[in-house]
Design a protein that fits this description.
Layout (H helix, E strand, L loop, with lengths): L1 H24 L3 H18 L4 H23 L4 H22 L8
Helix pairs in contact: 2-3, 2-4, 3-4
Length: about 110
């Protein structure tokens, strides 16, 4: 009995230590929206994004916000959250690619 309790407490301690690391990797959708918007705006201010790139990224961002509001009306399903996360991942990659493609701003 005592060995079982010791083993269970060890497993719980290990699981408790791993949980904060996993929780830090997940970012709420609203926080991702804010981060992504700020990255786009920073790219515009620094000149890393050209006008057409910025317009396209902003348009895609607004489209994702609309989709997010539509999903939120009835409460998010697990599939909808996954869909939004994938779409934000893709837009985030496009922001990174466009900011680092060495094209100068033409304003």
């Amino acid at each position: 009995m005592r060995n079982t309790l010791i083993a269970l407490s060890a497993v719980a301690a290990i699981a408790g230590a791993a949980a904060p690391a996993a929780a830090q990797r997940w970012t709420p959708i609203q926080q991702r929206q804010a981060n992504l918007y700020n990255r786009i705006e920073q790219g515009i201010r620094s000149g890393a994004l050209t006008r057409p790139e910025a317009n396209r990224l902003r348009r895609d961002f607004v489209s994702l916000e609309r989709l997010d509001r539509r999903y939120a009306r009835n409460g998010y399903s697990r599939q909808e959250v996954g869909d939004l996360q994938r779409r934000y991942d893709a837009l985030s990659r496009r922001v990174q690619i466009n900011k680092n493609n060495r094209r100068d701003r033409r304003y």
